[in-house]
Amino acid sequence: MTDKPSDEEAKPKADVTEEKPVGEKKEKSKAEAPKEETKEERSKKQGSQVETSGAVPAQVVKVFKKVGLYGECYQCLARVLEGKNKGTLLRRNVRGPVRENDLLMLKETERDVRAV
Question: Which residue among 4, 21, 27, 96 has its CA within the 20 to 30 Å range from the CA of 54?
Fold first, then answer.
């Protein structure tokens, strides 16, 4: 053996760090990435309010009978409470359970359905 230190012993040991190749992108941590809200989170912030912009309220005066191929709708007579057709009685098909004096929010008040 020789008295000369080998090349490995002569070099000071540096901290070992892993270097990533140049083309590889650094992954963003979850904290850095902007979080997108889900529909559920947005609805919780807004509360249980329903968007009714442009809708006109109408009160159910009379419920006639079930209509539709499977009886899923009710035919009702409703009185428009606001807007240019205020006080008008309209016959409308309503999907789901409905009773007299319920309020409907109508997107339009021009049409009337055929009596069945």
Answer: 96
